[in-house]
């Protein structure tokens, strides 16, 4: 398996900050795992 998840800063940059990230989660476009939340 290749690298599935970016670093926290890469994700925040791609989603335009935490608001965009959580909006994507709410919309079902992102499915975080417990591992992702601990970064």
Summarize the structure.
The chain has 39 residues and is mainly alpha-helical.
Tags for this model:
39 residues, mainly alpha, 54% helix
Provide an overview of this structure.
By secondary structure, the protein is an all-alpha fold. The protein has one domain (8-37). It contains 3 helices and no strands. The protein has helices at 8-15, 18-26, 34-37. Helix 1 (8-15) packs across helix 2 (18-26). The protein is flat. The two termini are 20 Å apart. The mean pLDDT is 72.
The rough form would be described as: flat
The helical percent reads 40-55%
The protein's oligomeric status is: single chain
Main beta sheet, described?
none
Order of helices and strands: HHH
Termini, distance in Å?
Answer: 20 Å
Q: How much strand content do the residues show?
A: under 5%
**SSE-based structural type:** mainly alpha
Count of helical segments? 3
Total number of distinct structural domains: 1
Give the tally of β-strands. 0
Indicate the radius of gyration in whole angstroms.
10 Å
The average pLDDT value, as a whole number, equals 72
Would you identify the regions where 5 or more consecutive residues have pLDDT less than 50? none
């Amino acid at each position: 398996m290749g690298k599935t998840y970016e670093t926290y800063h890469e994700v925040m940059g791609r989603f335009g900050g935490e608001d965009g990230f959580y909006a994507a989660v709410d919309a079902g476009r992102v499915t975080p795992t417990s591992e992702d939340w601990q970064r």
